[in-house]
């Protein structure tokens, strides 16, 4: 028997079927499954879908404007935070996969991890350029340019490949479970270097405002969906250990992402206020 959802969609496309009756059937299906569960499933699907491109604004910051601007963005990003966050994503994906949790409940971690890896490589590349190691890159033939870039990025690429092989092929499931639990304190530790960097620079211009907001919304959605899964299993007297771990992890992530967004709001306002004050003082000098 086909999925009820696909059956309803086929009926909606059938010109000989009353659309009102079909919608009533759909509503009956939703009530039978549970509005909370349906909403959680839709939000999960939305989160995974949006996550496929949500880091693009941050990647664009490392690719557009002048090379000086790109280097400035790269210097403002915390490689330590990015690396730990990417490792957390890898562990989270492996943990969920090993426990046969549906991809829709954790797919964004895989997609965000891939985009984080790209950001790490771009950040490393522009930091290396700033150090003068690739100063004559543009003068080289294309093949030599590619070779030089790969050599410069060999270490981070090697670490990434090694981590993927270790956690997916070698690491025992018990270790993955422990690391998933440790994701909670590690998530806090991962964000601290970036929070400190923002505080030191008194700006968050190197981070994408879109990404910061999306991280908060995504974390909030995951708190809701993981709580819904936990509640469903709890009412059926099933084991809820995995759901508790995931709920705690997403809640921690929500708090830390909210702090980063808060920094963006505060520093942006302070930055604009300072600029306006300087412009007013400049205007007064001109009038004198």
From TrEMBL:
Claim: Membrane is one of the keywords in the record: yes
InterPro entries: MannP-dilichol_defect-1 (IPR016817), PQ-loop_rpt (IPR006603)
Name of the protein this chain belongs to: Solute carrier family 66 member 3
GO annotations of cellular component type: membrane
Primary site of residence: membrane
Transmembrane feature ranges: 32-56, 245-267
Annotated localization: Membrane
